[in-house]
Amino acid sequence: MQKPAFAPRLLPLMIAISLFPVTSSANEPTPLATVVVEGTPETLAPVGVVVENLPSLRATTSDTASLLRDVPGVSLYGAGGVSSLPSIHGLADDRLRVKVDGMDLISACPNHMNPALSYLDPSQVGLIKVYAGIAPVSVGGDSIGGSIIAETAAPEFAGPGQAPLTKGEVGAFYRSNGNAHGGNAAATYATESFNISYTGAIAKSDNYDAGGDFKDSLFVAGTNPGFTGHPGHTLPLDEVGSTAYDTRNHTLGLAFRGGNHLVEARFGLQDLPEQLWPNQRMDMLGNDQQRVNLRYLGDLDWGTLEARVYHEDVDHFMDFGADKKYWYWQGTPTYSGDPCGGPSATCAAGMPMYTASTNTGVVLKANINLTQQDLLRLGTEYQRYRLDDWWPASGAGMWPGTFWNINDGERDRAALFGEWEKQHTTQWMTLAGLRYERVTMDTGSVTGYNPAGGGNQGRDANNFNALDHTKTDNNWDMTALARYTPDATRDIEFGFAHKMRSPNLHERYTWSTWQMAALMVNWTGDGNGYIGNLDLEPEQASTVSATFDWHAADRNWEFKATPYYTHVTDYIDAIQWNATTNAASTTLQTNQFTVLKFVNQSARLYGIDLSGRMPLAKNGMGEFGLKGLLSYTRGENRDTGDGLYNIMPLNARLTLTHKRGVWDNAAELVMVSRKEDVSAMRNEMQTPGYALVNLRGSHSWKQVRLDFGVENVFDRLYYHPLGGAYIGQGTTMTTQAVATVPQWGTPVPGMGRSIYTALTFKF
User: Fold this and answer.
1) Is position 1 within any domain?
2) Is 226 a domain residue?
3) Domain of 613?
4) Is the model's pLDDT at 310 over the cut of 60?
5) FRET partner for 687 with CA separation of 20 to 30 A, picked from 111, 124, 337, 550?
6) Which residues pair with 445 in a beta bridge?
7) Average pLDDT over residues 385-390
8) Residue 686 carries which DSSP code?
9) Total tally of structural domains belonging to the chain
10) Which residues does residue 300 pair with via DSSP β-bridges, in sequence order?
11) The 91-92 sheet, strands edge to edge
12) What string of DSSP letters covers 178-233?
């Protein structure tokens, strides 16, 4: 199939076409738009879509990342029920800078089961902004794919001379598929100078069902374990194993205001007893996070000053959940119902894995008003991160010692940045910024379960321990943006960014070529195992992008187009690895799970996002409108010609909206084309195209809001292109399957029909 190559040529052509004036008038430019779910846009950010229906989105999901599903260019990696990983233009996870209330949170788990956005329930979100591709250097560094900023609600205060402000909210939801249910509560008390607030949410779900049978067999005693967990625990052919979750999130806020000065403290707590994983070999059976976040904000004569100090502690635990086989054996199992498989087998009881991390950060930023047209942003940041990743003795004595995957891991960042924003005329605005980051990393010596045991544990640990683990990266980011507003109906933004990202601790320091250990390092959901690489260099991405915005003078209708092109030097991809020779495999293993090693290669990504909205009719039946978006991304490894992993194929979303009084309704059509451009190195599976229909409605009273709807109305069986490989049940600790699972070739299916409702009461 011929590959499109329009992006590099389309960019200058569209800029030139758009510069031809339609009228001779010129309006004051609006601020560069931000992708905002709720809240006030900032002065400068890439063009996006203002999402006005946050309450409706909250009713359908307990996954905060999925609130961004209507943002052009954003897609989601499949993961646990509340832990999807956002992807912007094909770059995801640690390639994005994700901040929660100004904190740079890091996923400590080697499977990235606790990403930053998973620490907020959708009901706790007051604001989400997306900087797609070209992000100002003041937003953050150590990323190449854009930034996501999530914030809880800003503190409110009573007006001068008014009585104390008291307000609150309680809500509950139910979704039929998976029997998902939960609730949330919020309360605020505030005077003119003091605010105390609380938000809390709980969410729980069983496994969800697909839109049809997607497995080829059930457990048959004595012949075939098929798709089963432990003997006697069999799931129906349409039940997607390891998709249950149970999570609780709490936030307490204190704020003090005096004149133009604000001091606030926020305390966060997550107690997550269970989140199972359909595309990982382990499940998260405990995640406890405590965080404290102190902030000062001052509005001074010369501008604003912001200072922040935060600290986070995470204790994370993984093992096999109910749908995965807890008992393994040496010898010949009989499938007799005995969890050990009979007297001839030696039992291996589970495989506990622990991760503990501490994350401390300091941020100081100043916005200086040089003139009425010139704004200078200056800042410095420091982050100190520590990580231990260890697996205690397990296997009923088969693995007698503790396996140290990461021992005393260190990753520290120190940054300085400057950014100049200038309003040249009523038509032209520019921004230029430079950021320097110094990233230092180190780790201690490691050991396997049994240095004399199998899997080359002793060899690999000795090789790793003999090397110098200290690494220092000097990274430079640069951003240059411009906005041109020729008249009241057109805005054009275009720019260039050069961004750098250092490897994470698991990319650099995981050391074992043993299949079982390598399988524990995987945040892509592809079922493969990964080995770290001490020689990895930082990724360097150069991006050129533009946004063309045609709209009515009153924004009654609008259409936006964003072509982009990114070239990545030292892109961290992977190659298949031969553990016996401890070298790259000479023969590509196909149609099976495998083990790979992280390596630097070259990559490019390009594509286009289209979005728009328009009114259709306004009559006695209400107001009807149409909105839609379309996104296309192509990613290629330039060294091998292979496709990049987990690139979303051409997809579109078309929504018919209806409003009448207190009613707000929508009918949505989601269309995704077949995924054919895949990563052969990772044995990524193709997925068929599909179309889904969703119906949504809401009714609002003065203090009560009712949301309801149906997702996947026609109960369609489909496979999300970024859902990963299905390894949600059975004996998951192998790469190949003969009579046992996981069976390569089954993608994780999407959720079947689900009827939902949510009720919110404000007081």
Assistant:
1) no
2) yes
3) 7-762
4) yes
5) 111
6) none
7) 98
8) P
9) 1
10) 303
11) 74-77, 85-88, 91-92
12) TTEEEEEEEEEEE-SSEEEEEEEEEEEE-PPB-SS---S---BTTTB--SBSSTT-
